[in-house]
Amino acid sequence: MKQILTFLTLGILLFSCSRDEEEIDKYQNNAYLVSKMSRGFRPGDPTELYTYFEYDNSKRLVKKTGEFMPLTYSGPLRFFSENYTSLLYDNNRVTVESFSSTNLFVVPYNSIYFTLNNSMQIEKKEIPAITNNHFSKTLLYNYSNNKLVQIKTTLPDMAYGATGPNEYLSYIENFYYNSNGNLTRTEYFRQEYGINKGEKIVRIFENYDNSINPWKRLYLSDEYFYRSISKNNYRKHTEMYYDNDMLMSTNDISWIFLYDSNGDILVN
């Protein structure tokens, strides 16, 4: 009986390893270097619009073209723009620059700088302020068991009249996962002198499929960052905004994906 259990256990382990290797092969295959992605996943978004992606010989994202932009800073209305973003790699440093390619709207030139660790994960993200360096941001990424567990955002204190480097105002976001390695929840807090105070945002990710994640290589794009973290793909996202622990608003978004005969998601 013990021998039978041993063989069964070994068989399960071999099947699991084989499946993991198969998923890695699929991910590394050029078919999972997504060349274009339909914008029609979310209800109400037109299916004939696409975002296009380009990669270098190391299969790193180097250009993204096409995105929805807000008509105003505070309103829900959006328009689809042919704006593009380029990514330039220099060892473990990545410069991400956004450009406007339309004559109808003026989009400010913007640069963001990433520092990657030896596992090609984000270690630091620097966001310079366009008009006032006092409002520049630095994001520090912390990992445990190869999973992102926290992002801390710091700002220069002189912007708020406080003394001491980066002590007054900061933000932290904590990340939580299920046993399948999928992101289930994040909690984002505003902090004063390291104490949670005021703004809080809770993000819930659920209704995951069993498909390989085609967004894995797009982790340097803010639009796809949360999707890139997980093993599979969430189909519902809820965001709850609190002010001093009082719930102010809730926003739910659901997606309907199509899958091929192998159960893998179709994004083109």
Automatic annotation (TrEMBL):
Protein name: YD repeat-containing protein
Lineage: Bacteria, Pseudomonadati, Bacteroidota, Flavobacteriia, Flavobacteriales
